[in-house]
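batch job 7 of whatever, protein = Monovalent cation/H+ antiporter subunit D family protein
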Amino acid sequence: MSADAILPVFVALPLIMAAVTTLSPWKRGNDALGLIIPAINLGLAIWLYSYTAEHGTISHVIGLYQGGVGISFAADQFSAIMLITTMIVALTSNWFASVAGETQARYFTPLTLVLITGVSGALLTADLFNFFVMIEVMLLPSYGLIAMTGTRNRLLSARTFVLVNLAASTLLVMGVGYIYGVAGAVNIAALRGAAAGNGPITVATGLVVIAIAAKAGVFPVHTWLPRTYPSTSAAVMGLFSGLHTKVAVYMLFRIWVVIFDMDARWNALIIVIMVISMLIGGFAGLAEHTMRRVLGYQMVNGMPFILIMLAFTNDDARYALAAGLMYTLHHMITIAALVLNVGAIEETYGTGTISKLSGLARRDPLTSAVFVAGAFSIVGFPPFSGLFGKVTIVLAAATPGDWRSWVAITTIIVASFGALLSMMRVWKRVFWGRPMQHYPKALNVRAKLLAPSALLMFMSLGMFIGAGPLWAASTAAVDSLLDVDSYTTAVLGDDAIGIPDVDTLQGGN
C-alpha cells in the first residue's frame, strides 16, 4: 500500500468509531474510544509530518480516479502540523469531558468523533466543495454538543450558533458554486493564481473567504463567538476553540497562497479589518461577567494576530506566514488550557461567574498557577509560548517599515495591553481577595480535573523552551505551503482532466 493511501484513514477511522460508539451501550468502552481515536490520529499526523518532510506533498484520490475528477486528499507539512495540534486539543478536551462526567450524555463521544472526522477531512481536502462538506460534517455534531445539556441558556446559544453557521455555510456553498460557474473547477490546485487576475473568480472566491472569516469569528461577524462558546460545557468549548476557528485559519492561509497568489491589492483591507478585530477582542472582555466569556474575547483577539500576517506576505512571505503559524499553534494550546482550567473551577464550585468567586489563590494554588501561566502566555509574557508567538509577529510586521508596520505593531501592543487588563481583572476578582465563606474549606479542585489543562500549559512551557525547533518546524511547514508547484503536481498528477487553463483565467477581467 502506498503512503498516500493513509490519508482517507484520518477521516474513515473516527467516522466508523462514531458509528460503533453510537450503537455500543458500554460507557467505559466509549470513553476509551473517545481518547484512543484522537490519539491514533495524533500518531498518524506525527508520522505524516515526518514523511512529508522527507518526500514532499502527497495526494490520494478516492477510488483512484484521475486528477481533477475524484475526491482529492492532499497533505504537506503545513496540514500535518495543524493536524497534530488539533488532535492534541481534541484528546485533552475529551479527557477532561471524561473526568468531569460530561460523557454521561449518551451521544457525547460519537458526536465528538464525528467532529474529529470533519476536522481531519477539512485539513486534508484539496477541493473547495469537499471543504464545505467537511465543514458541515464538523457543524452537525457541534449543534448537538452545544445544546446537549438542554438548559435554556445553552439552547438559546445553540440557536444563535446554528443561525450564524447556517448563514455562513450558505454563503460558502454559494461562493463555491460561483467559482465552479466561472472557472469550471473547485479543485484548489486547479485554481492556482486564478483569483489574482480574474474579476469574477476574485468575487466568487471573496464570498468563500467572507464565509470562512465569519466562522473564524473575525470582525464584523464576531459577536456570536463569545456569546455561544462560553454557553457550552468547558470540554466542548475547548474542542471548539482548537478546532473550529483554526480550521478556518488553515483554509484562509491555503486560499491566500494558492488561489489569490498573495495578491498585494488586498493588504490594506486585511490590515483595517484585523486591527479593528484586535482592539475589540483585546478590550471587550473587560465588560464580561464570567471567566469563559472573557476567554471568548481572547479567542476573538487571537484570530487577527494570526490573519494580519497575510498582509505582509509580499515582503517576506516565508517569515510572515511562519510567524502566523507559530502564533496559531501557541493560541490553540493556550486557549484550550485556559478553558479547561476554568472548566475545572466551574465543575468544583458550580459557577464561573466572576462576582461569585474569590480567594482561589489560597484555596487552590495549583489551579491558580495554571491559570496565571495561561494568562502570561496569552498576553505574551515569558516563560510561555505566547512570548515568541508575539515577538515573531511583531518582527514580521516590522519587515516593510512602512505605514503597515506602524499601524500593525501599535495595534498589537495596545490590544495586548487590553488582554492584560482583562486577565488581571479576572485574577484580581477570582483568585485574590478574601476566601469564600459559603464553601467547605475542604472543597478543592480535584487533581484529575486539573490535569488536562496543566498538561497543555506544560506544552506551552515546552514550546517556549524549544522555540528554536518549533520555529524550524513552522518554517518548514510554511515552505511546503509556499511550494505551490509541488502541491499542484501532487494533487493533479500528470493526467488531470477537466482542469481550466490557468493562464486564461488569469487573463480575465
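notes: The chain has a mean pLDDT of 89.
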